[in-house]
UniProtKB/TrEMBL annotation:
EC id: 1.1.1.79, 1.1.1.81
Record organism: Paenibacillus sabinae T27
Name recorded for this polypeptide: Glyoxylate/hydroxypyruvate reductase B
Top enzyme class: oxidoreductase
Reactions it catalyzes: (R)-glycerate + NAD(+) = 3-hydroxypyruvate + NADH + H(+); glycolate + NADP(+) = glyoxylate + NADPH + H(+); (R)-glycerate + NADP(+) = 3-hydroxypyruvate + NADPH + H(+)
Length: 320
């Protein structure tokens, strides 16, 4: 008999077909946690769970007594309570690596768009404000030959550094849990304490996972340590930043601007204070969202799920 798998996100048909070859699949475009919903009924019998973003904690797991593997279609796994899953002998997997270049492209695009004020200037053209001469009120700042400070130099961070160093001739400083001599040598990246990095960087880019240590790690104190001309880029998770402190820093000119892909609450509420600020460039959490990369992520996650359900060790098993 095939194991039962619950797919709770919209995934490409060919990937769902592959899972169906190996599992009996219940498929939903989005999870519905209300008691008695078809999703919760299917969960009772499911041995595998495949999708992205669903909060999997003790209360949820109490309602999934047969679960053996949770396969995230994402590299971040802050939605999963890993110690709780491990204590119940349930495997968890993610999709590292396959999205590194795509996310780095997004983050670098966001950085350039923020420095050169591209979304604001797009509005300027559309609103008919482009007259004979363009005065310096609309000038941005250079990216090339500036200093990029990256916090969290992992798989994605390295690809951002590659673009900064070799594409834009930037100096790179970084802060990480541990030093990376290979990357230091290859990219000339120089290690800094967090406070040193914040004080020195022209662009501060946050690329850590969301963990108890990184939650709220950039707050009022950290914004005040940054240069007044600094641009802050967040591609990690919204909750790594104190959003109220960020809004205040942008309003008061404590920093120059911010480019954001992630928020404490997603989707970002319509009238969130950030939406009123011209010096904030806002993307809807699309770091990895290209057709090619999302397909690759779905395949990776599906293979992890199937391997786990077959009793094999999945390629991307998350260690507790
Ligand atoms: N905006 C988006 O669409 C996307 C966002 N992400 C986010 O980016 C995160 C990073 O992804 P990867 O680079 O693949 O992960 P990774 O695990 O390869 O790299 C993360 C780096 O952060 C470092 N780190 C962890 N805690 C730290 C701390 N307290 N201080 C300093 N450094 C710390 C780690 O040592 C590691 O080098 C994901 O966990 C996810 O939250 C990932 C993909 C897309
Ligand atoms: O993979 C992740 O962690 C994302 O945020 C979406 O790609």
């Amino acid at each position: 008999m095939k194991p039962k798998a619950l797919v709770y996100s919209k995934l490409p048909e060919e990937v769902v077909d592959y899972v169906k070859e190996h599992c009996e699949v219940s498929s939903f475009d989005a999870p519905d946690n209300t008691s008695g919903s078809p999703f919760m009924e299917a969960l009772k019998e499911s041995e595998g769970l495949l999708g992205s973003g669903l909060k999997v904690d003790a209360a949820f797991l109490d309602r999934a007594p047969r679960l053996r593997i949770v396969s995230n279609v994402s590299v971040g796994y802050d939605n999963l309570n890993i110690p709780e899953l491990s204590s119940r002998g349930i495997m968890a997997t993610n999709t590292p690596g396959v999205l590194n270049d795509t996310v780095a492209d997004t983050i670098f695009g966001l950085l350039v768009a923020t420095a050169r004020r591209m979304p604001e200037l797009d509005r300027y053209v559309r609103n008919g404000q482009w007259k004979e001469s363009r005065d310096q009120d609309i000038f941005g700042i250079d990216v090339h030959h500036k200093t990029l400070g990256i916090i969290g130099l992992g798989g994605i961070g390295e690809k951002i550094v590659q673009r900064a160093r070799f594409g834009f001739d930037m100096d790179v400083i970084y802060h990480n849990r541990s030093r990376n001599p290979k990357l230091e040598e290859h990219y000339g990246a120089v290690y800094r304490t967090l406070d040193e990095l914040l004080a020195e960087a022209d662009f501060v880019c946050l690329m850590t996972p969301l963990t108890p240590e990184t939650r709220g790690m950039i707050s009022e104190r950290e914004f005040k340590l940054m240069k007044k001309t600094a641009i802050f880029i967040n591609g990690s998770r919204g909750a790594t930043v104190d959003e109220e402190a960020l809004v205040e820093a942008l309003r008061s000119g404590t920093i120059r601007a911010a480019g954001l892909d992630v928020y404490v609450q997603e989707p970002l509420p319509e009238h969130h204070p950030l939406t009123a600020l011209d010096n904030a460039v806002l993307l809807p959490h699309i770091g990895s969202a290209t057709q090619e990369t999302r397909l690759e992520m779905a395949w990776t996650a599906a293979r992890n799920l199937v391997a786990g359900l077959k009793g094999e060790t999945p390629a991307n098993l998350i260690q507790a």
